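Hypothesis: this fold can be encoded by more than one sequence.
Test: take the structure tokens below, design a sequence, compare later.
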């Protein structure tokens, strides 16, 4: 985050200068209950970036205290995504490895008279909790003796109670203006197999209790999280203090990243995956890190975007076009230029010698001359885009129509002499003539044409599939976040978010492999897809089109 200052950086700097801290340790603590999304990238970039800047370290910690939703597949994907974003963790930790210590700290609370076993149901607990304007009511079990609480808690651990029959609650203050302090539940019974600890435990700590302990155990100095945890900070500090933790991490909250036309919560993303709206967590239409990777976004673009979006307490919605802007910026100098025809129309150049093939020179990237020159074959039959011919064009249409002349990129001027239709009336072939004087690079200045078309040589072109994406969610994010008029975000899923077309590419692309990125003339930036590309056909995902109305 070296580019900008922000309030978290200021706090850390002051902590180091005042001697409150002599080191910086941060952590990125995902729950392995889904794939990471670009919101998590913000948290990763902030945590790792700040630690780097102050010569500190960052741990990757799986916050795996909820056995029902967690899975090894998610653990693996999270590790891969953090690495792909370019970060190395100092230590890899699992919160579940601290279950024994957490249990002991809970016993300590009981012994101090600061926790009790409660028999109220979940619903009753909610009722007793009161509201923002009304104080809560004490549970009839609140004043059990320390002895009794110790016994009951041990029985909970031994599996003597059903799910939900008993909970352990912190004994704080049922009339606190902060509802989080009204005796929060800190342990629950859940007879479930855990991905890491198996059947060792049938009681599990709640997030609000577990998280501060995890931070303190790891000696984290600055525990950075999103603003929905702001009201939990007093509880966080209470847990650290009352559990006699040697280390005192400080929780600091920043605003969540939201992006327009995007849902950004693992729960919703999982729903889109499970209900078949998309083709897996790495579908290029999802804002998951793996989806963006398949779409052709780069770690550099994601990082630049996150930094530009800024670190503050507020959590506005950022326009998706801003992210696209950084993708273009990053690929501009890196991606080779090439030509691909997405919806082919055959053109026969009638005055071009049969059996002749010319190899034309073309710069690989005019914006980055170091990338050299490629050769493109040209012969009597080529493909152009269907949309580049009109029988009866409107004014200002500068592409091909009967009698009109255009430039073929890197090649010659051609003029449309004739067109052929099939029985259904579709134009299926053009007959053109070319002017040998007009060869690209020859310095020809005889006359000018207004249109420049891309093309590929018909005989040598390789077949290719192009996948073009539109936003998956049609309405603005605010609307998606809530159920409005009985609708959920699923009602705003765009049915036309994916278009698949079959076309042709230059033969020099035959060795392209998954994750190679290209700029196709006029069509935008594309990434070779790892899932669908086969020996016989390259499949390209469009990362971004070329034009944008977005200005920083
Ligand atoms: P989700 O609601 O998508 O499941 P989460 O907050 O439950 O997200 P965690 O696995 O708990 O997901 O997240 C790990 C870290 O990433 C947390 O510190 C969380 O605050 C942060 N994080 C999650 N979503 C965002 C976001 N949109 N912007 C910034 N940080 C985020
Ligand atoms: Mg969560």
């Amino acid at each position: 985050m070296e580019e900008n200052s922000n309030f978290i950086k200021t706090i850390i700097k002051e902590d180091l200068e005042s001697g409150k801290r002599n080191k910086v340790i941060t952590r990125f603590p995902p729950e392995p209950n889904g794939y990471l999304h670009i919101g998590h990238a913000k948290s990763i970039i902030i945590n790792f970036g700040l630690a780097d800047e102050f010569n500190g370290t960052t741990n990757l910690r799986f916050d795996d205290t909820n056995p029902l939703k967690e899975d090894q597949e998610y653990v693996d994907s999270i590790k891969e995504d953090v690495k792909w974003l370019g970060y190395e963790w100092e230590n890899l930790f699992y919160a579940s490895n601290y279950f024994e210590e957490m249990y002991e700290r809970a016993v300590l609370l009981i012994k101090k008279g600061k926790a009790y076993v409660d028999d109220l149901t979940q619903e009753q607990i909610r009722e007793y909790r009161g509201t923002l304007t009304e104080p809560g009511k004490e549970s009839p079990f609140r004043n059990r003796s320390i002895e009794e609480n110790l016994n009951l808690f041990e029985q909970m651990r031994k599996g003597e109670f059903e799910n939900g029959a008993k909970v352990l609650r912190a004994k704080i203050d049922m009339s606190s203006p902060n509802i989080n302090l009204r005796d929060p539940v800190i342990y629950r019974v859940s007879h479930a197999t855990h991905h890491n600890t198996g059947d060792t435990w049938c009681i599990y700590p709640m997030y609000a209790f577990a998280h501060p302990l995890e931070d303190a155990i790891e000696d984290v100095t600055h525990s950075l999280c999103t603003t929905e945890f702001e009201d939990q900070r007093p509880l966080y500090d209470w847990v650290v203090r009352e559990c006699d933790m040697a280390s005192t991490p400080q929780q600091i909250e920043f605003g969540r990243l939201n992006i327009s036309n995007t849902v950004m919560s693992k729960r919703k993303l999982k729903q889109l995956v499970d209900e078949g709206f998309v083709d897996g967590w790495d579908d290029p239409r999802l804002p998951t890190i793996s989806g963006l990777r398949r779409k052709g976004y780069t770690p550099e673009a994601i990082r630049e975007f996150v930094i530009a979006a800024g670190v503050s307490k507020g959590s506005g919605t950022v326009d998706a076009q801003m992210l696209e802007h950084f993708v273009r910026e990053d690929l501009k100098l890196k991606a080779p230029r090439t030509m691909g025809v997405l919806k082919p129309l055959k053109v026969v150049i009638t005055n071009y010698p049969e059996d002749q093939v010319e190899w034309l020179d073309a710069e690989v990237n005019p914006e980055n001359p170091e990338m050299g020159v490629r050769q493109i074959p040209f012969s009597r039959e080529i493909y152009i885009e269907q949309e580049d011919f009109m029988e009866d064009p409107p004014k200002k249409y500068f592409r091909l129509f009967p009698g009109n002349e255009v430039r073929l990129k890197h090649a010659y001027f051609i003029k449309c002499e004739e067109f052929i239709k099939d029985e259904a009336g579709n134009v299926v072939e053009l007959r053109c003539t070319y002017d040998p004087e007009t060869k690209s690079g020859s310095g020809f200045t005889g006359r000018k044409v207004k249109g420049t078309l891309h093309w590929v040589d018909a005989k040598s072109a390789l077949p290719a599939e192009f996948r073009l994406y539109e936003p998956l969610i049609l309405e603005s994010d605010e609307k998606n976040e809530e159920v409005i008029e009985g609708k959920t975000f699923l009602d705003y899923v765009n049915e036309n978010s994916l278009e698949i077309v079959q076309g042709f590419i230059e033969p020099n692309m035959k060795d392209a492999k998954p994750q190679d990125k290209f700029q196709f003339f006029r069509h935008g930036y594309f990434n070779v897809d790892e899932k669908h590309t086969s020996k016989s056909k390259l499949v390209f995902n469009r990362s971004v089109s070329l034009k944008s109305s977005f200005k920083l």
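DSSP finds 13 helices and 27 strands in the chain. The chain has a mean pLDDT of 95.
Hypothesis status: open.
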